[in-house]
Input
Amino acid sequence: MTWRWADMGIHTGIDSQDFSILYKNEEECAAAIIAMKWPGGFICPRCAHTHCSRLTTRRIPLFECGNCRHQTSPLIGTIFEGTHLPLLKWFQALELFLLPDGISAMRLSQVIRVTYKTAWLMLHKIRHAMGEFDARELLSGVVKVNNDLYGYDPSRCQLSHPHASVVVAGCAVTESGEPERVKIHLVPPQNRTYGERASRHDLAEFITGNVDIHASEVQLFPLAFRLYAPLRKVVREAWQSLKCTYVALGRKHLQAYLNEYTGRRRLRQSGGERTMRQELLHMCAAIPTISYRQLTTRHRHQIFPLPVAAA
Ligand SMILES: [Zn+2]
Output
């Protein structure tokens, strides 16, 4: 079976070499995940032996170590672990996730024919992989840090923005001074009244957690009226994009959506569409999954902690 977005009334704005062309069936999807997980060939997670036999009686192949006989699935330690869905549906979701403004769970559920809850969970798992992956890489070089507001339109009266959120945004800049890699972090409210900005402590905390200070020259913009304009523009664009796809976005998962926006922006900068897809798949194969329960009980402004490195 092959599927084309154009047939479903969806125009990706990227080329036609999408996942649907690259991977046509379950075997090819599984092979792509296996290649991402073990790029240098099989490694037993228990004894590091490199020879195995492949048991193909199951939907997803199982590998048995030639030394200790441990059996392992290539989906273990990936966001696909424990899934009952065909991998093709996952690959369709990955492709749609890469649309310029992403895709809502409602729309995804209609396009790939799964329930709303399943679509919601799939998108959050992909988002989780992207956020975790991004958190591992620090900003370096010339880094600019703004004390900004998300969801704030300066052309409107301040009172009309009761939901604007305080954020610290940072970016590495290119030689021509444009924002390259961007991180936008929500600052927990902690009795903040509207209009307040992040404190010096919040800014310092952002720098400690997100900037490689030994390899960077950090320029701080703590004052609202003197922000680094190109970075402020990215924060506004994030708001516009998320607003257009996710209409009513709760604050509980807002950090995950901001990570999605900056992560996708980064992937789109990374080169051709093929690279973009491979990088997203790489993230999904390298980050252990997150459960529905973990997602629904997580804290409002939680910036994801680093997981134990995947084997
Ligand atoms: Zn083994």
